[in-house]
Prior knowledge:
transport; mainly alpha; 20 helices; transmembrane helix; cell membrane; TRAP_DctM
Amino acid sequence: xxxxxxxxxxxxxxxxxxPLAVGLGLASVAxxxxxxxxxxxxxxxxxxxxxxxxxxxxxxxxxxxMIFERSGVALRLVRFISALVGEWTGSHAVVAVLVSMLLGGxxxxxxxxxxxxxxxxxxxxxxxGYPKGFSASLIAAAGSTAIIIPPSVAFIVYSVMVPxxxxxxxxxxxxxxxxxxxxxxxxxxxxxxxxxxxxxxERRERPPLGKSxxxxxxxxLAPVIILGGLRTGLFTPTEAAxxxxxxxxxxxxxxxxxxxxxxxxxxxxxxxxxSAVVLMIIGIASVFAWAGNTLGIFDAAASMLVAxxxxxxxxxxxxxxxxxxxxxxxxxxxxxxxxxxxxxxIAQTMGWDLVWFGVMMTINLAIGxxxxxxxxxxxxxxxxxxxxxxxxxxxxxxxxxxxxxxxxAMIVFPELALWLPRRMGMG
Length: 427
């Protein structure tokens, strides 16, 4: 009865149009009061939910992503990749995917990655004859892979909620699936571009390779420094985020000279506002998770689901459908906070590797970021392109199907995610 009350109040709050954090908080406070708990448990668990060392990386990676975006790193990376790839039918679609992967190795956030690439790539793609709907769809899909490619904010949150899956192991496990996801997007992008002749028109002057490489070298070094430092043990994932901020500020202020004191202050304010929203959701969702666990709601629900789905295959299919649908309406971090208390006991009962399970969940949520009707990343790129989201539907469905094939490959062959962490002694 209490479990039904907790879920019902939360769903009613969402249907009433309340913000996610408010809905979680109201449901948690009401259920704890009904169960006779002291209301001091609410602020105590809210603080405990965010007072975790690994979570310090989230505001730092958000700040790092904004610094790299506004310092001109994305523009220089586009020029270098364009010089490397050249000018041919569909070449700019390839550039968009490759640049998104590189920026994903810096920001760890899908919407931030999509916004940075869209602001630079959309004008040049449209000028070369790519439809706005196709361009916005491709960039949204490619940007969403940022939460799979390390460093990933989603992996950090997952590790905090599932201590058995460490951040270094998750980062290593996400590398190969992230590359596969990018390849899955490249195939339909190239096929569509060649069929319709996108980019076949007037040839533009190819940027000089040597010059563009030296201009982009500082951006290319960023993921090398971050991932290399993590691999060698020079710093922890949380310290890596601080290193990324310091490196980005150094490049923007002293190398490119594109950031001034006023610009840095604006970036700090914007990053602070976004980080506050994310951490507030995490804190209040921690109260929701604590209430469900303390009252035995999630364990009872997990046991019921396991008894209902005796087959691991049916259970896996059900979980993936649930995650795909949830990803269409909520962001990845919110879904982790709401569903992990329910799904982790199921994964443990089924004997699934929790690192592999985390990667599988994250790929599902990456797909949700560019799958209508909500599709946060697609919403951002559509707005930058100046079109309605409906104009992207005929294109984005091909990229959703391609990513689903990549997800299926990772599920059927778990070693795609687990081979690298085991090779590095993390599995």
